[in-house]
Structure formats: structure tokens, C-alpha cells
Amino acid sequence: MSRLVRPDFNTSSLFTLRPGPVNVLTNTPAASGTPGAPTTNQQENVAVDNYTTRIVKYIPTEVISFNLAADKSVQALQSSTGDSIFVTASKSAPGLLTGAVFLVCLFGLPFYYKAAADRGQPIGINVTISMAAFILWSYATDGSMWNSFGLKLFDPSIASLSILIFTFIVGFVVPGK
């Protein structure tokens, strides 16, 4: 199973909105029973990448987990009593370290999805939606970056509501070919 949502080959648009499974191209032998026979591309309605599968694939759990662990490590550095350069840096500019981790994760997402894609699989919509998901999830997990620089941007009500709405809507998005 690919990590990316499979494109629907019945649409020529960038994406469509629907809850059902997608039509994917499958290679089937032109002459059945003949080994090595040429293959033809046929569209087959395959029960993959339905609504719930698309939700799971669009949310970059590995990158969110990395960001969450790194963010909590930076928070631990800030409360440490040590005198290493990392402790000093995290206490003097707490937003810089968490912001750097956030940016590394955000801009690393396209490379992660490129590596996870099957051959020839388009990644544009997958990356765009996953970047939006990453931003929302980093906010919803109370990442310390959102309260850095004297700004108190985190609000648990907004965080939970945005995750609920985003997760409900994103499952309807099916990438086009």
C-alpha cells in the first residue's frame, strides 16, 4: 500500500470531492494464460483509498510524531539546570529552536512524500494537504512554537475544532491524474 492517496484516473481535474473508492489503472495480460504477454492498461474500480483510507494517508503521522518529540525535547532543555550551549540557547531564544524544528518538518514533508510515492504517482495534492494537516496538528498538540515570542496563539477550543473540521473535509478530496 502506497503512503500517498492514489489519483482517480476518471477525472482530468486537479482533484475531486467524493467519499467512494477511486478508479486506478491496473495492468492485465492482453492474452490470458500467456506468460510474458503484453499488458494493457485497464481501469478497474478497486476498493482502495476510500474516505477513511484517504484521511489516514493525508495526515503525516510520522512527521507529526517527530515534531512532537523534538518540541518536547526542546521544552525539556528549557527547564534543564545544565549549562551546555543547547540549554543556554533554548532558554535565551526558546522560539528559535522550536521554530527551526517546525520549519524542518514542514519543508521536509515534500521530500518525505517524494520518497514514499510509488513510481509515477503524483504528489502535489498529497503534499499540499499534508502540509496543511501538519500545521494544524502541530497547533493542536500545543507545540511551544505557537506560544513563543510573547504571542499566546494557542487556544484549545480552536485547536480541537479545526482538527475536527479539517479531518472531516479532507477525506472527500481525491487527487486527479
Question: Explain this structure to me?
Answer:
It is a single chain. Strands 1-4 form a two-stranded antiparallel sheet. Strands 2-3 form a two-stranded antiparallel sheet. Helix content is 50%, strand content 11%. The longest helix has 23 residues, at 94-116. The chain starts with 14 loop residues before the first strand and ends with a strand. It has helices at 51-58, 61-78, 85-92, 94-116, 124-140, 156-170, and strands at 15-17, 23-29, 39-45, 173-175. The protein contains six helices and four strands; from the N terminus they run E-E-E-H-H-H-H-H-H-E. The radius of gyration is 21 Å and the shape is elongated. By secondary structure, it is mostly helical.
- Major beta sheet summary: 2 strands, antiparallel
Radius of gyration: 21 Å
Number of helices: 6
Number of strands: 4
Average residue pLDDT: 77
Supply the key terms.
11% strand; 4 strands; two-stranded antiparallel ribbon; 177 residues
Question: How is the topology of this model organized?
Answer:
Layout: E1 15-17, E2 23-29, E3 39-45, H1 51-58, H2 61-78, H3 85-92, H4 94-116, H5 124-140, H6 156-170, E4 173-175
Antiparallel strand pairs: 1-4, 2-3
Helix pairs in contact: 2-3, 2-4, 3-4, 4-5, 5-6
